[in-house]
Amino acid sequence: MTPFEAEYPYEAKHKGNLSASSCHKPLELYSVIDPLCPECWALEPILKKLQVEYGQYFTLRHIIGGRLESLNSFRRKGQQSAERIADRWDKIANRTGMSCDGDLWFEDPILAPYLVFLAIKAAELQGKQSGNKFLRKLREQLFLQKQNISKEEALFEIAKNAGLDAYEFIKDMHSQSAIKALQCDRKFANEMEIDEIPTLVIFNDKAEEDGIKIAGSYQYSIYVEIIGEMLGFHPEPKSPPPLEEFMRIYRFVATKELSVVYNMAPSEIEKAMKKLILKQVVERVPVKHGTFWRYNTSQTG
Questions:
Q1: How far apart are CA 174 and CA 154, in angstroms?
Q2: Contact between 241 and 230 (Cβ < 8 Å)
Q3: Residue 76: is it exposed, middle or buried by C-beta count within 10 angstroms (0-12/13-18/19+)?
Q4: What is the per-residue burial (b if ≥16 Cβ within 10 Å, else e) of 24-45?
Q5: Which of the four, 67, 97, 169, 292, has the lowest number of CB atoms within 10 Å?
Q6: Which helix (DSSP H) or strand (DSSP E) does residue 197 occupy?
């Protein structure tokens, strides 16, 4: 039993949603995020590469550790705060390569983040995989489509698109189960003294050993080194699948994500993706900063 299971039986109970094989993975990696935070969104390429190369050694869980203070400040300061947040989003997008459109804060700002947090926990009640799909689509709508994801009708549509039972999801969003799950996340963040997001916390299966906390964002090699330390040996990375297979699995990804996973320059990714466009495997999706690629689902038929 990991320290997290001992302290948070609610989360431990829902490990039943994992496959039998994943329960035997020696590491548990907790990604403490704020779903509205562009720095957390910018960590997605690193997490994807870790899952591709070392996913056989760890399970990944997302913990909501966002704070409401910044959004409450937005309500008070209005236009001035909108300009500050929008400018920050655009700067982070340019620096990291993961697009986020700050115009949202002028057009339809988010004023109810707590509902977003509850929605993520409600989605997880339908299984870990469903929760992860929902979180990804939620962030795509937020950062790329400038959608106010704190509106219940928007959350309902995201749940449908993620393949959830959307009506059950709405019911769960207003349930004690979602509230309790969010409280467990907050307790975990407080007890681990999380004061920066994103933060990754890694536990191994040795109950006597403490977890390692990695606050902020680092080069990929740092995460690999820490995984090796926690395992007690340096594992060989798995090779990523062919690009077409990767797109079939993930369906909608950024050039930046592909660049990190395949260790290729963005220009090389662009050239490779043009070949897949000619084969009608993918289509280009321009966004404010950079490019995303969508898999043509008719390929599966």
A1: 15
A2: no
A3: exposed
A4: ebbbbbbbbbbbbbbbbbbbbb
A5: 67
A6: none
Q: Yes or no: say if 46 and 167 are a contact pair by the CB < 8 Å rule.
A: no
- pTM: predicted TM-score of the whole model, two decimal places: 0.88
Tens-place pLDDT, residues 30-87: 999 999 999 999 999 999 999 999 999 999 999 998 665 444 444 555 566 889 999 9
- pLDDT tens-digit series, residues 74-83: 455 556 688 9
C-alpha to C-alpha distance for 246 and 243, rounded to whole angstroms: 5
Q: Give the CA-trace dihedral at 26, 31, 100, 79, to 10 degrees.
A: 180
Q: How does pLDDT run across 213-248, given as a tens digit for each residue?
A: 999 999 999 999 999 999 999 999 999 999 999 999
With CA atoms as reference, report the closest residue to 85 among 70, 68, 63.
70
Six-digit token string for 290:
């950079």
CA distance to 13, 42, 90, 99, 201, per residue, from 93 (Å): 37, 8, 5, 5, 25
Torsion of CA 82, 83, 89, 95, to 10 degrees: -170
Distance, CA of 255 to CA of 251 (rounded, Å)? 13
